[in-house]
Specification:
CATH class of the largest domain: Mainly Beta
Shape: globular
CATH architecture of the largest domain: Sandwich
Helix content: 40-55%
Strand order of the largest sheet: 1-8-3-6
Length: 220
């Protein structure tokens, strides 16, 4: 890629771009605990998170829930409609006060075809999601509960995704962590207490996650 191309990509601001008048969109807001969309509901729009956090949950035919993702500002959700998905495959719930841009399916398709920078950013997002799904599957198949919990906590803290990972994580319960890890709340509580004793996490006005928690994953 040319130097000019690198400069252009570096200066691209997705949030500012989505706010431009040329894109049909609707700004929507949700309170903590409010449902954004439900599993089985119509899949007709894509949302881009501007502020807050969202939990994606699937429910089995037998009524068992599982958390499949925690999303934050800068993430997309509901993108299945672009691939022809007619019904939502998961339920999206606001973990805190959340604001998002809702883009109609047809408008999203038009923008993806017309605006190459936007398209590149969206494709990168989808590739990252696919990598995450593969890593989650590997994690469930081969890693211990302790390692899976450590990985989830680091993902929640956005470790490795930003230059400055979030040190304080709020609005996530041990029940949610248990659903993501695939274990009981009591086991999550036991490991959280262990992590705290070892100095990997702290409770002080929220959950502080230290980068040293990575040693749990790397340790043989």
């Amino acid at each position: 890629m040319s130097e000019t191309g690198l400069i252009k990509r570096a200066s691209f601001n997705l949030e500012r771009y989505l706010k431009t008048p040329g894109i049909a969109k609707k700004i929507v807001s949700y309170l903590e605990g409010e449902t954004i969309f439900s599993q089985g509901g119509p899949c007709d729009s894509v949302l881009y998170l501007q502020k807050g956090g969202v939990k994606l949950t699937i429910t089995s035919p037998h009524g068992k829930d599982a958390v499949i993702a925690l999303l934050s500002a800068g993430d997309f959700l509901g993108e299945g409609c672009i691939a022809g998905q007619k019904f939502r495959s998961a339920t999206a719930t606001a973990l805190e006060s959340t604001t998002a841009l809702m883009i109609d399916k047809q408008e999203m398709i038009r923008v993806l075809h017309k605006e190459h920078e936007f398209s590149d950013r969206f494709v990168a997002h989808m590739l990252q999601r696919n990598v995450r799904i593969e890593e989650d599957l590997t994690d469930q198949l081969f890693n211990s509960t302790e390692r899976r919990l450590a990985r989830v906590l680091l993902l929640v803290a956005r470790y490795g995704k930003t230059e400055q990972p979030e040190k304080i994580v709020a609005k996530i319960s041990q029940e949610t962590l248990a659903e993501m890890v695939g274990t009981s709340r009591s086991r999550v509580s036991a490991f959280m207490n262990k992590f705290r004793r070892l100095g990997y996490i702290q409770y002080n006005g929220g959950l502080h996650i230290n980068g040293s928690l990575l040693s749990v994953i790397l340790h043989d």
